[in-house]
Amino acid sequence: MIGWQFSNFVPNNEDSDPFERLLKIFKELLVHTSGDVAEALSWLTELDKQYKLTDNNYGIADFVKDLIEKGLISQQTSNGKLGYSPTTKMEIALRRQALDDIFDQLKKSKQGNHSTKMTGQGDEFTSELRPYEFGDRLDGIAISETLKNAQINHGIDDFRLTEQDLQIQETHYKSQSSTVLMIDISHSMILYGEDRITPAKKVAMALSELIITRYPKDTLDIIVFGDDAWSIEIKDLPYLQVGPYHTNTVAGLELAMDLLRKRKNPNKQIMMITDGKPTCIKKGKTYYKNSFGLDRKILNRTLALAVSCRKINIPITTFMIAKDAYLVNFVDQFTQANNGKAFYSSLEGLGEFIFMDYKQNKKSRKK
Description:
This protein is of the alpha/beta class. The chain folds into three domains: 13-86; 119-173, no CATH class; 176-363, von Willebrand factor, type A domain (Rossmann fold). It has eleven helices and 13 strands. α2 (18-32) packs across α3 (37-51), α5 (88-102) packs across α7 (197-214) and α8 packs parallel to α9. The radius of gyration is 27 Å and the shape is extended.
């Protein structure tokens, strides 16, 4: 008889493992503390006191010992004091957790480039055939149709295979893309007690892990911008901190354009995560700053760069973590000047928006 068989619920082994349970919390704390292991462990100890995360069989000291043995943190001695720091293995684990937390709606797919609706060089075959052209890969030859052509054209008695008999099975063309991710680290990202930089870091880590693991032929550059703009490595994302900076969007865009000019991919794009208007530009060796309203000098320089990006086919997707009317008006002008895209999102929806737009942008790109 076909039907359902019910049994008692058995918790996931990972949930029952005290190390894995503490590790998940610890990784979250490590992002919030910008990679400060001592502070993260201090917070974890306070949480343990309040919520009884450990028991007599497994305590925080055991957890720290396991972290060291598993190669997730390393011991260091500075000025005679023992300290800890995250390892490369931990940095990868942080990116993977961010990917799971933010992009949990993703389904498994073949690694490589992004599928398009066009035919060309790729991995997935279509039902279409065409004559062989010089330069085609031999593993794309449709054997049955090629032998059929040879038999029709030359007969069985004088069977031979010529170039004119060869048939190639078309594949879906797969595009590559170069992306620059700009992250605002101005003071407003932690203003009024609201932590906006931690979700921005998690999104950046998730996006970088997504590209590394699922789109390995793509390139990703990460820029942070405050009074100035500079590049950082993917491994530095967990340690990112907000500074006493204004928002020099112009410097970020100029650096992003310089990086993309060096990329050979025809598909290029900029993604910018910010929570406010541009408030700073550099004039020679000095800075012109204005935090009140939308300064016309700063605005014009920013819009001019948006137009420049449009002229060289670099779309900009802006993720504005704010919904103030004058900020929305600025982003609308900026997006229209670039012919790009803009999302006004809460922190909770930021990751989904980034992935959905990234994927759609890639699919719509042309060779």
